[in-house]
Amino acid sequence: MSAVARPVGVTIVGILIVISGILIIVGAVMNLFNDEVRLSVSIVVLILMLVIGLIYLAVAKGIFDGNNFARLLVGVITVINLLVGLYHAIFVELLRWNGVVQAVIALIILGLLFSRRATEFFTSS
Fold it and tell me: What is the C-alpha separation between 82 and 73, in angstroms, rounded?
């Protein structure tokens, strides 16, 4: 356990990752039993979704525990989301506002994960 208390922002990011992981797993399981979806989406893709959902849960545990590797992994994925959001906001007219929202959310997550308090929490573990 970390000597520094976990900041609220880190807890919020961890909870969002848990929710995302659960939604991915539930969606994959539901679609495994949906004949229409299985005809258009490979079972391999659905199993991959299950694995990704489980990885989300493992990364969330790392975030809650103060694992710096989990923070860096979420940071890299969030930077990619930021870049995709900016691309959509600038170059894809139909997705302009989605891109803006995606970029803003990514910036908030990066701010929460790499704030001074969060850095103290992750480096003290």
Answer: 14
Reported as a single tens digit per residue, the pLDDT across 10-55 is 999 999 999 999 999 999 999 888 888 777 888 888 899 999 999 9
d(CA 106, CA 86): 10
Q: Is 73 a residue whose pLDDT tops 90? A: yes
Q: Are 124 and 66 in contact (CB under 8 A)?
A: yes
| Residue in the block written with tokens 């992981």 | 21
pLDDT above 90 covers a percentage of the chain that reads: 81
What residues does each domain of the chain span? 8-123
Contact assessment for residue 6 and residue 121, using Cβ atoms and an 8 Å cutoff: yes
CA 78 – CA 76 distance, rounded (Å): 5
State how far the Cα of 56 lies from the Cα of 65, in Å rounded to an integer. Answer: 14
What the block records as the tokens of 42 is 């490979």
